[in-house]
Amino acid sequence: MNLRPHITRRELGGPDPLDRRIGPAQPRSLGWLLSLVRTRSALGLAPSPTPAIIFLPLGALLGPRALGLLSSDILADLDSVVTVGLTVLGMLVGVALGRDIRTAPRLFAAASLESAVTIAAVAAATMYFVQQTQLPIEGPLLVAALALGLCASASSATSADPDSEPAAAIGTRVADLDDVLPIALASCVLLPSATAPQAWLLIFAPIGVGLVVGAIGWLLFDRADSGGERVVFVLGALGLAGGAAAYLTVSPLEVGLVAGLCWTLAPGRADRIAEMDLGKVQHPLIVMLLVIAGALWVPGDVALWLLAPYLLFRLAGKVAGAWATASLADARPADLAAYLMPPGVLAIAFALNFRQLLPASTGDTLLSTVCVGTAAFELFALFVLPRWRNTPRREAA
Amino acid sequence: MPNGAEERSGREIRLLLLVIAIAVAGLVVLARFRFPAADIVAVTPTPGPLERLAARAPFDELAATVAATAERLAPLVAVVEFDQIPPPPVNAKGRMPRPNPRTPEPQNPRTSEPQNPRTSSTRYFAPALRVRADRWLVYQAAGTRAVRSGSGPVMVAAEDTGRQLALLGLSGRTEPDPQLLDFSSAVHGFPGTSYALVIEAAPAGPAARPVFIPRLDPVSAAPWDSPILRVGGTMPVAAGALVFSLDGRFIGLTVPLEDGVAIVAAATLSRLTGELAGGGQ
Questions:
Q1: Which member of A136, A302, A323 has the closest CB to residue B12?
Q2: CB-based contact, A320 to chain B, within 8 Å
Q3: Whole-number CA gyration radius for chain B
Q4: Would you call A250 an interface residue with chain B, using a CB distance cutoff of 8 Å?
Q5: Pick from A77, A243, A308: which is nearest to B30 by CB?
Q6: SS3 A78
Q7: Which residue(s) pair with B139 in the sheet?
Q8: Which of A319, A340, A366 to mutate against chain B (most B CBs within 10 Å)?
Q9: Strand partners, B78
Q10: Residue A136 touches partner B, C-beta closer than 8 Å
Q11: Are B232 and B214 in contact (CB under 8 A)?
Q12: Contacts of residue A246 in chain B, CB cutoff 8 Å?
């Protein structure tokens, strides 16, 4: 069995220090399964050592509808932690984007096109479905449909080893880069229901706050006298970004993306410092986001009905997007589609973000739909897609 | 003969069209169904992340506490509508029959004063407290009777006309495993000089509000065989209101006094409920 016990490529800044010290793990009987579940990533992030299909049900089990260990009050208090977690994700994505956009602009264009196709497909299907079935959705339908489309557009790397074949490397990078467009549009989803001043705020506030935080970090990180002081600066920048985003009701993902992009594009080591310090909390933070999302899952008829356009047209949108961008990415459409199938943690992050921005019932419904849809696509990708990808090769052999 | 690349390309286009066709067909078929419930589920608005962290005014905290406790107590409380007992019919000589001195005059529970049944509105609402699975304890002003609760009729199971208490059966509230008032966890020896949660009745449902009780003095008053707690100072609460502590423990029921309002303690009500449920009066 070809095991891949030590995965370092997908982690920003190289392997964890602990990984280096311990060294590669020894093959075990469950090695195959673990090798699958340890490779979910997005834009260079290794979000968690285990995927959404484990932590979402765990969160639901701990949540107020099951064991009640995470009560509604605790979840409400954790909302600020969610905001900070989303900001960290946005910053890490921004740092990775700043590096990839200079080396692979063509792949970035392909990924953005693929993402736009999926957003359009899911949003249009959702609007049609809601209008036809008269699903009760609070707030403007266009806003809810766009939000669901943005959640659907996220992709993470697949269970395949990025080094195993050229298609895997390309597919993984496209899957990484296709998260940038939905993050950039996250605050703009509220534009259809916003007044003119609010619209300007939604467009420019995340950029402005991100630039300010980026400038502060750029000025401070490099000049810290000690490691402890540097961590305080990084956490302060993180708190400022998350707090400002929450205060202005804009997307913390977008604010973090702009700040991370600033640190990478600006001269100096701000990006590497932020990456190193944020990387220490990356895995626990993402596990926490998944558990909170699971705990916030509200089983309901509306969420169940919305699964129809989400599942059907995310699948169709990814396949169509892969077909449209395959020539740009120099990959086979079928391979590309296969690698784009798992939504990963960023779909959950988008849903948590929209839960903060949209009306309460719509946000809860959206999160519930995306949680179930993410688990379904992760299972689909885990068990079905590897065989499907291998079929043409066997035929060719 | 087409080469391998063209075969793959053709296969992928067929795959793409197949997936899109299945998605569109699936959506169109599913869209033919109508969502059964047209109502939006009421969800408590999520406060912003910073709202949880920001310092809050004490009154905001009091309001939040009252709202949370009232929501928790909602299954225990029902609103009952009362109306005046109609006057006896005019006799053949065209005179009203002489009033029976044993029958108390109708009272307005808000003022505790006898009211003229011909001139004043006698319809009022009072909160009833679920003390048994099928029994609700309520204050019933003299000369009035319970007529309905919500849209369902009311059955008077037992009443204590002297103390103006009644045990009712509400046909509209027959949940399989209802939440009951736990007298054992009630507040004993409530000292006053603090806020309490008062639940009154509004036509659309129970209305809860915080009320500061300045002082409580035990007094003996007929027909109560144990002291009741007279509220010192002006207390704008109607007779029949249910008084709870802010953490949701039962304190008592307000009843009228000649010079104000008193609270009948939970222990007394527990005993009277047992007597009413046991035999009635």
A1: A323
A2: yes
A3: 29
A4: no
A5: A308
A6: coil
A7: B165
A8: A319
A9: B128
A10: yes
A11: yes
A12: 48-50
Beta-carbon count within 10 A of B86 CB: 9
Tokens 């509000």, residue?
Answer: B209
State the alpha helices, DSSP H only, in A104-226.
105-133, 141-153, 166-177, 180-185, 196-220
What tokens appear for A283 in the block? Answer: 């895995």
Residue with tokens 């688990």: A375
- Beta-carbon-side half-sphere exposure of residue A356 (alpha carbons within 13 Å): 33
Contact B66, B104 (CB under 8 A): no
- List CB contacts of A331: < 8 A, sequence separation 6 or more: A166, A167, A170, A171, A174
Q: What is the pLDDT of residues A253-298, one digit of tens each?
A: 999 999 999 999 988 888 888 888 888 888 888 889 999 999 999 8
Two structure tokens written together for B220: 């003996």
The ipTM estimated for the assembled molecules is 0.74
Chain B residues near any Cβ of chain A (below 8 Å):
4, 8, 11-13, 15-16, 19-20, 22-24, 26-27, 30-50, 52-53
Q: Which long-range contacts (CB under 8 A, 24 or more apart) does B37-43 make?
A: B37/A136, B37/A301, B38/A134, B38/A136, B39/A136, B40/A136, B40/A137, B40/A138, B40/A361, B41/A136, B41/A300, B41/A302, B41/A361, B42/A361, B43/A360, B43/A361, B43/A364
Q: Are A128 and B31 in contact (CB under 8 A)?
A: yes
Give the distance from residue A29's alpha carbon to the nearest chain B alpha carbon, in angstroms. 36
Specify the residue for token string 């579940």.
Answer: A37
Please, what is the Cα angle at A345 between A341 and A350, to 5 degrees? 100
Name every chain B residue with its beta carbon within 8 A of the beta carbon of A309. 27
Contacts of A82 (CB under 8 A, 6+ apart): A289, A292, A352, A356, B49
Query: Nearest 5°: phi and psi at A275?
Result: -60, -40
Q: Mind telling me how many Å the CA of B15 is from chain A's nearest CA? A: 8
Best of A71, A75, A118, A132 to disrupt the B interface (most B CBs within 10 Å) is A132
A226-259: burial string, b at 16+ Cβ within 10 Å, e else: eeeebbebbeebbebbbbbbbebbbbbbbbbbbb
Which helix (DSSP H) or strand (DSSP E) does residue B230 occupy?
strand B228-232
* Digit-coded pLDDT (tens) for A88-140: 989 988 888 888 888 888 888 888 999 999 999 999 999 999 999 888 888 88
Q: Pick left, alpha or beta for residue B137 (phi over 0 → left; psi -120 to 50 → alpha; otherwise beta).
A: beta
Predicted local distance difference test score (pLDDT) of residue A40:
44
